[in-house]
Design goal:
301 residues, 11 helices, de novo design (two linked rop proteins), 6% strand, elongated, 2 domains, Glutaredoxin
């Protein structure tokens, strides 16, 4: 009787490695999603993260894209460890079926994640033209998952596997283009991808006029969601009274040189009486900072 061939190292440990990579990917995307949901600022060792993470491409269906990434990593991690949860000898057949199906699902999931991540890297490099180290890290995790799903077990029918990858890839690309086509069109046709929709009261207009009269400036970028939040506080009419400085070269009436000269690193940034304040500022605080003497009952007409 011949000896049973032992598993290779990669086949024996692939699920463990996959689980580790999904944990890293989940940690990255969870951090980005939480910061986005609470309106916080992501700490990044290189410049450009804010431009990528605040761009219209960073949200899908009104939710942070990172949240969907976290769910994808959580799903992959669950499939990786699922067979380990069944150790009973009486459930040996169930475990075998679970191993087979989870491998197929991990392969399908990794193909989809890799293709989607590749598209996002393309958007980051050629559309947004900025660098996000977290996004690159997540893309690397997705690629590693694909490689491990491919070589982590002894697949019986490689031809069927390739065919599955092609079908999944086509579906992923069609779905990705369907989701992002309206966003890309809005950015291309309308520089201000985040238009102001709220209505201004007379007191909000008065504050905006006061800020302009004293030389206050609001620095921002057309793709910045926090800038939109700041503008929404004022309302459409009041925003038109502000001295708004567009810092992105693609934005309408861009004044990039002025932003560079004043070392603007975050959006929005307010310049009031020679002092620079970063982030969204309430109308009440703007009134205090600027020495506004009018009514501060901004919610009443």
């Amino acid at each position: 009787m011949g000896r049973k061939r032992s598993k290779s190292w990669i086949h024996s440990n692939s699920r463990f490695i996959i689980a580790g990579i999904t944990a890293v990917g989940a940690a990255i995307t969870a951090y980005l999603a939480i910061e986005k949901l609470i309106g916080g600022t992501v700490i990044c060792p290189v410049a450009g993260c804010d431009k990528v993470l605040e761009s219209p491409y960073a949200s899908v269906f009104g939710l942070p894209l990172a949240l969907f990434g976290f769910l994808a990593y959580a799903g992959m991690g669950t499939m990786a460890i699922a067979p380990w949860l069944i150790n009973s000898y009486s459930q040996k057949e169930l475990r075998s079926k679970l191993e087979n199906w989870s491998w197929l699902l991990m392969f399908v999931g990794s193909v989809s994640m890799t293709i989607f991540s590749s598209y996002l890297i393309y958007i980051m490099a050629f559309e947004i033209k900025s660098l996000c180290i977290y996004c690159i890290g997540s893309a690397i995790c997705s690629l590693c998952l694909f490689i491990l799903a491919l070589i982590g077990r002894n697949w019986e029918d490689i031809g069927q596997l390739i065919f599955t990858a092609i079908i999944v890839g086509m579906i992923t690309m069609v779905g990705t283009f369907a989701v992002y086509a309206p966003i890309h069109s809005a950015i291309t046709d309308k520089p201000d991808a985040y238009g102001v929709t709220t209505t201004s009261t007379a007191t909000k207009v008065a504050l905006a006029e006061h800020l302009t009269n004293i030389g206050a400036k609001m620095y921002g970028a057309y793709w910045c969601s926090h800038c939109r939040d700041q503008k929404q506080l004022f309302g459409k009419k009041a925003v038109s009274k502000l001295n708004y400085i567009e810092c992105d070269s693609k934005g309408e009436n861009s004044q990039t040189n002025l932003c560079v000269a004043n070392s603007i690193k975050a959006y929005p940034t307010w310049e009031i009486n020679g002092q620079f304040q970063e982030g969204v500022i309430s109308l009440e605080n703007l009134a205090k900072l600027s020495g506004y003497k009018g009514s501060t009952n901004f919610n009443n007409p």
